[in-house]
Design goal:
mainly alpha; Arc Repressor Mutant, subunit A; 3 strands
Length: 77
């Protein structure tokens, strides 16, 4: 499923644009919040809405212990 055909809310688009950037395959919620200007709570809410349909959490946390999230179209199901 392509996020660009599914996501229409402005805040959600910001989150997905951050996840779809060329720099990283995985990202933390904190990094997405910094990049989008949204609160970590709002980012978490958006990611929870699309978990396992457009996004998924990594089985392994970041080096800092934070949860990592990626687009299923980039990281697989």
């Amino acid at each position: 499923m392509n996020w660009q055909k599914t996501v229409t809310d402005a805040d959600e688009i910001k989150v997905f644009m951050a996840l779809d950037g060329p720099e990283y395959t995985w990202s933390t919620m904190r990094a997405i919040a910094r990049q989008t200007g949204l609160s970590e709570d709002r980012v978490a809410q958006i990611l929870a809405k699309y978990n396992l349909t457009l996004t998924r959490l990594s089985d392994t946390p970041s080096l800092s212990g934070s949860a990592l999230v990626g687009l299923i179209e980039k990281v697989g199901a």
